Amino acid sequence: MFIKTNVKQLSDGYLDRTPWFQYILLSICFPMWGMAASLNDVLISQFKALFTLSDFASAFVQSAFYGGYFLIAIPASRVIRRFSYKTSILIGLVCYIAGCLMFFPASHMATYGMFLFALFSIAIGLSFLETSCNTYSSMIGPKEGATLRLNISQTFTPVGFLSGILLGKYLIFTDGNALEKQMDMMNEAQKHDFALAMLQRTLQPYQYIIMVLIALLVMVAITQFPRCKPLDKEAHETQATIGETMRYLAGNGRFKFGILAQFAYVGVQTAVWSFTIRLALQLDGSLNERAAANYVIYAFIAFFIGKCIANFLMKRYNENQTLMVYCGIGMAALLYVIGVKDMSAVYAAILTSAVMGPGWPTIYAHSLDAISDKRHTETGGAVIVMAIIGGAVVPLIQGLVSDLLGSMQLAFVVSLLCFAIMFAYFWNERRIELSGQKTA
């Protein structure tokens, strides 16, 4: 190890102070999965046109991506338990790089299924990263700052969102008419050649991502990180099995509500961003994909601003009350998206991004805090990450509703329901807080 740390490990796994270099390096991992996630929003529009997909079928981009999270989160937690958070981060970075490299054969094979497999491979790496980084960020310092630390780390995520959409806009999308309009004027042979050329463009963003990931991998490898695992009764804690943990979590009502809220949060975030470009293209026929991508850029900027405002508010006011207000604004904005038939509906969709930011880290930290038996912390964190499957399910449902109703706008009622679930969760957390109820 070339870069070391000198902090005191406390008995509950937290530290006496935050090692700032390690915390910053850890936080830099957060935009890396944001970058991959926002590129999916570009790929959905690209693949829908090139492979002639329905809204439902195009949403399988998100299903492949978030399905990988769901399947790998528990194995990642066992790696953390057996080895360390750092080991899990290193595995995540290596798998992420391998998944990006798979875009090269996918672009040459030019099949939708191969691209989905490449995205699934990327998600395996990201599952290791998120399972370790989210819990680790909350643990790497004093306990009283756990939620704030995670929220600050998550503030880096919009940088990744914005970087990914900019890479997609300028390296994947092109000028001229929308892809579907261009292909309508071609014969079958021309469509085939055009699709191959456009699919080759998907390689370029991932080439830049690979370079950044390699640099990050080296920095993490040469840096010493604290263990951040409970010291008391450690030998006994290592004996907790998956079955014991699952039985414990199944009887923890507060934790289960957190899983539902996290499912809804990732679902609404993914669904709104996945279909923002499609919504803009439907409401303004003069737009092409590159121009419509600007609205996703605005959404990510709004997400970042909203998150910074939330960090400020949550230090001065009650966290749960702040999030209830945010969810209320989100529901009102989505009612506008559903009901108004002009381009202002796109801006209302952008507004929802401004109130999404603090959702994930706050639900994560509260759900983790609901685990009073710390033998189950690593696996419990993995189960929270598994709730990311909402990003696979909700866009599919919203895409299916759009196809059945023939209206992208009416389909946003699915996202509205997700915000309602989140509102109920924070209301319940506030109720528990006021009653002084203990965690399970």
Automatic annotation (TrEMBL):
<dbReference type="InterPro" id="IPR005275">
    <property type="entry name" value="Lfuc_symporter_FucP"/>
</dbReference>
<feature type="transmembrane region" description="Helical">
    <location>
        <begin position="323"/>
        <end position="339"/>
    </location>
</feature>
<feature type="transmembrane region" description="Helical">
    <location>
        <begin position="345"/>
        <end position="368"/>
    </location>
</feature>
<feature type="transmembrane region" description="Helical">
    <location>
        <begin position="295"/>
        <end position="314"/>
    </location>
</feature>
<dbReference type="GO" id="GO:0015535">
    <property type="term" value="F:fucose:proton symporter activity"/>
</dbReference>
<keyword id="KW-1003">Cell membrane</keyword>
<feature type="transmembrane region" description="Helical">
    <location>
        <begin position="112"/>
        <end position="129"/>
    </location>
</feature>
<feature type="transmembrane region" description="Helical">
    <location>
        <begin position="380"/>
        <end position="401"/>
    </location>
</feature>
<dbReference type="InterPro" id="IPR036259">
    <property type="entry name" value="MFS_trans_sf"/>
</dbReference>
<feature type="transmembrane region" description="Helical">
    <location>
        <begin position="206"/>
        <end position="225"/>
    </location>
</feature>
<dbReference type="GO" id="GO:0005886">
    <property type="term" value="C:plasma membrane"/>
</dbReference>
<keyword id="KW-0812">Transmembrane</keyword>
<dbReference type="InterPro" id="IPR011701">
    <property type="entry name" value="MFS"/>
</dbReference>
<keyword id="KW-1133">Transmembrane helix</keyword>
<keyword id="KW-0472">Membrane</keyword>
<feature type="transmembrane region" description="Helical">
    <location>
        <begin position="88"/>
        <end position="106"/>
    </location>
</feature>
<feature type="domain" description="Major facilitator superfamily (MFS) profile">
    <location>
        <begin position="22"/>
        <end position="432"/>
    </location>
</feature>
<dbReference type="Pfam" id="PF07690">
    <property type="entry name" value="MFS_1"/>
</dbReference>
<dbReference type="InterPro" id="IPR050375">
    <property type="entry name" value="MFS_TsgA-like"/>
</dbReference>
<feature type="transmembrane region" description="Helical">
    <location>
        <begin position="59"/>
        <end position="76"/>
    </location>
</feature>
<feature type="transmembrane region" description="Helical">
    <location>
        <begin position="407"/>
        <end position="427"/>
    </location>
</feature>
<feature type="transmembrane region" description="Helical">
    <location>
        <begin position="255"/>
        <end position="275"/>
    </location>
</feature>
<feature type="transmembrane region" description="Helical">
    <location>
        <begin position="150"/>
        <end position="173"/>
    </location>
</feature>
<protein>
    <submittedName>
        <fullName>L-fucose permease</fullName>
    </submittedName>
</protein>
<feature type="transmembrane region" description="Helical">
    <location>
        <begin position="20"/>
        <end position="39"/>
    </location>
</feature>
<dbReference type="InterPro" id="IPR020846">
    <property type="entry name" value="MFS_dom"/>
</dbReference>
